[in-house]
Each structure stands twice: as C-alpha cells, then as structure tokens.
Protein 1
Amino acid sequence: MFFNILATFAEFEADLIRMRTGEGMAIARAKGKLSGKQPKPSNRQSRELRRMYDTGDYSVSDLEEVFSVSRPTVYRTLQRVRKRGRLWN
C-alpha cells in the first residue's frame, strides 16, 4: 500500500512537469522564440531549385548533387515552394 501511494505521488509530479513544460512551450511559441529546425536549403536555394526543376533540364538526381541534399529533401522543398508560390524572401 505504501508503494502505491508513492507511485501516485510520482505520477502526479510527472503530470505537473508535463503541464508546465507545455505551458512554457506555448509561451515561447507565442513570443516567436520556438520555431523548430529550419529547412536545409535556404530560401534563395529553394527558389533556385524550383526554377531549375521547372525548366525540365535537371532531374531530381541532378538537383540532389547540385544542392548536396537527399532526394526526400528535394521533394519536400519543391512541395514547400509550390504551396507558398514564392518563398517569403
């Protein structure tokens, strides 16, 4: 019974930590200080990658080599540029 009470307190403490962490992240996100990992190709590189792909002269494999990124990164970048139409810079 004593161990059950200790386990209950430990679970309660873990819930408090989880709640405080979530609140802290929400505050940081609201202040714009929590943005996550930035994409590897810069905005300029992303626009250039899209332009080169649209010309039809370069395959995805060529773009991988030119920009030193993986195939999934090329596809993600193409999709991101297509969604925004034009990147923000």
Note: The helical segments are 2-31, 43-55, 60-67, 71-84.
Protein 2
Amino acid sequence: MKKAVFFDRDGVINIDTGYVYKAQEFIFIDKVIESLAYLKSKGYLCILVTNQSGIARGYYTEEDFKKLCDYMQSTLAEHQACFDAVYYCPHHIDGTVLQYKIDCNCRKPKSQMFEKAILEHDIDVTQSIMIGDHASDLQAAAKVNIANLILVGSHLKEQKALLGELSERVTCYKNVSDFVKNFTKWS
C-alpha cells in the first residue's frame, strides 16, 4: 500500500480569487511547488481532490477545468512536482447547468473522490495526510479515516470551529510550505 498527501486546490495550491479557471488567473501559492516536489521525494503520492461548483454554476466548462489542470500539471512537471491524480466534483445542487445540478456523493464534505482515489491507487489511509483550507475538506477525509488532517489558510479559527469534535485531530499551518517545514514529525 502507498502513502499519499491529498490536497484541496483553491486556497491550498493556488491563490483563491473565486472560480479560477484561466491559466492567467492561476497563481501558485508561494513555495507550494517546492513543497509538492519535497513530499513526492519522500515517497508520497500527491492527489488533488477539488470541488469545482463553477462548472455546475455555468461559470466555466469541464473542458476549461481540464485545460487549467493541463497548465498546472505542465508547470509542476518542470519541478518533478506533478499530481499523481486529479479528482474533481463538477456538481452543485444550486447549479444552473442541468446535468450538474445534483446532490452527488463526490462533493466534499462527502467522500466519494477520496474513496475512488484510495481504491485506484492502493492508498494506506493510516499513513496519509489531507491538506485543506475548509472544514469540508477535512470532514471528507475523516470519513475515509485519513489519519492526518491539516488545515491551512488565513481563516483557521473560523474553519476549525466548524469541525466540532473533529477539530481535536486537526493541526493548523499558515500554508503548505509551513507544513513541510515541520514535516519531520509527520514522516
């Protein structure tokens, strides 16, 4: 079995300016590329799990999302930091695009994206980590028993409060780079 670090995208990998889908709007958070490369060098799979309700809302298409993923992955490839897999949820119950206007099982805090990744990549959840910037990211990871839950971002207090008892299992950092600086205690 393999160990993995799961990542949310907006607010964790790139600056979240709201419904990012164009390469020129995609700005990597400082030192995140080096952090991904480091985690991969330590034998972790890097898995992206991202809600993309902008597809359901009609702000951009799945093709737009995939083009942005190609841009992101090509940039990361230059640093040996590619994601090993990308899972996304295009759904939202309040969407305007009928085919995506559903209450699915993949949108975090539900756990279907994680379940699929665990099966497809033979992941050992007891050695794995989830890094997210919202309570829903960590709630989804906890449902599949991912052992280590990391909350990052500028709204840590508010998001941690939403986790209730689960907050006792959560460690907070400013960003992915700060987590990696303290990684020796995780590895």
Note: The first strand starts at residue 4 and ends at 7.
Protein 3
Amino acid sequence: MARRAPVFLDLRRIHLPPPGRVSILHRVSGVLLALAVPGSLWLLQLSLRPDGMAAIARGLHSPPGVLLAVGLAWSLSHHLLAGLRFLLLDLDIGIGRAASARSACWVLAGGPLLAAAILARLYL
C-alpha cells in the first residue's frame, strides 16, 4: 500500500532531521551572502576614501552593525561548512544515514563556533 502524502502541512509539528535542517540553512545562508554582495562592494568603495576605514569601524561597532556582522559571520561559516559537507557527500564520504546525521550535527554546531571565532577576530 502506498503512503499517502499529508493533506496539510503544520510547520509546528514537522520535525526535520539534522541533514534537512543543514540543507535548508545552507540555502538561507547562500541567499544572505548573495544579498550582502552590494553592501560589501559599497563598503569596499568607502574604505578607499581617506576617512572611510574609520567610518566603517564606527558602523561595525554600532548595534545594527554588530547584528549585521553576527548574521554575516554565521552565514559565511555555515555556508562554508555545509558546502564542504555536501562536497564530501558527493564523493560518497559519509553517505550512510548515521554518518550523514553526525556530519550534519557537526555543521550545526560548528557554524556558530566558527562565526564566534570570526567575530572574536573582528571585535577583539
């Protein structure tokens, strides 16, 4: 007997396994990084002015700047780690169910840790 697809999707009751979460967050982080490109180019242009680096530093130490830096650091770190995980999966490394779940948990834990290291280097 074929399994029936759900009639409705209650997002509060759907529990994705870690590989599913990593996949969705990989897409979200990629979109955030793509949206950050114009702002990054503007900051690069601003940094070439004589007082531009001081203005950028002031902006990065404001509350919205810190929030933006946290979001971009997480996006970069998660996207990097998840991308490496997907490359290994393409090479048939860690393709089993247990290994895939384990590597997804490593990505979910490693993304914030790598982001914290990036932010520590930026702000300390």
Note: The mean pLDDT is 93.
